[in-house]
Amino acid sequence: MINKLPSPFVSIICCAIWLATLDPGDARGKEKDWITLDNCRLIPNEANDGDSFHVRANDTEYLVRLYFVDAPETAGISAARLIEQAEYFGVSVPQVIEIGLDAKRFVDAKLSEPFSVVTRLAGGLGRSKVQRIYGFVRTNEGDLGEQLVANGLARIHGTTAPAPGASSSADEREKLAQLESEAKRRKVGGWGMTEQPFNGGSQSHSSPDVSRWISTTPTSSSSAVATSPSELKNRSKEKTHLGNIDVNTATEKELTTVPGIGHVLAARIIAARPFRSADDLKKVSGIGDKKYAQIRPYFQ
């Protein structure tokens, strides 16, 4: 039958058959192999949120989208998507927006120090002029996506890929499911909010207990979270001595060793610098008289 067709049609058909036999991975070229972008820095941007943010690696800017996880929307909000996210956590829409804001603050704090992005340079969806890529973000406390799920700040949802060295995405999904189960048990993040039916209004809601935020570590097993909140609190008291912390130079890690300061509050303190003295801490959002009296003795 092909012999009876005009030669241009024969060429087109043969070309189509050849393209169909190609491995899609081969067609993507550089997307096939994992690469690591080291010493990355977070670039402040209004569009940054809990699962998508601007990053600079060497002299190149990327918009990194995390594999596996989806934090609630904070910008360009779609009502249908917000309702879907609220239903996932069993909270109201105003509450799920608060979860998204806390996820953004959490990421700002975690990425305040250099980090790595493991990526295939696979293009992420969106309209940004900056190159959008999917990736796994590694901090000195572990995988960022895993930390978000472990703290009830993101759902398991979205684009997946076998992690570097893994044959399928099933292992990572199972690990995230275990971290989420533990987060539900601990009632952290969105899982700790009072369940309220969505009514489309601006009903009052409480913020998550950020003092209970926890971290995963690169060496932690897939079946457990690294440290319990009570253990973190005890370790903080052991490591932090009164009057030793400089309010203007302390890192996020050092700030969170102070009992009463979680990652969100640490990020707010860093953002409010410089201070004339530690007495100005009372001007930071979230530090009332009681909180100030609790943390002030630890600063110079």
Structure, explained:
There is one protein chain. By secondary structure, the chain is α+β, with helices and mostly antiparallel strands. It folds into three domains: 1-27; 33-199, OB fold (Dihydrolipoamide Acetyltransferase, E2P), CATH 2.40.50; 228-300, Photosystem II 12 kDa extrinsic protein (DNA polymerase, domain 1, Orthogonal Bundle), CATH 1.10.150.320. The chain contains ten helices and eight strands. The chain has helices spanning 7-20, 24-28, 79-89, 93-110, 144-150, 170-186, 229-239, 252-255, 263-271, 289-295; strands spanning 35-42, 52-57, 60-66, 69-70, 115-123, 131-139, 142-143, 155-156. The strands form two sheets. A five-stranded mixed β-barrel has the order 1-2-3-6-5. Strand 6 (131-139) and strand 7 (142-143) form a beta hairpin. Helix 4 (93-110) crosses helix 9. The longest helix is centred in the middle third of the chain and has 18 residues, at 93-110. It is globular and about 50 Å long. It starts with 6 loop residues before the first helix and ends in a 5-residue tail after the last helix.
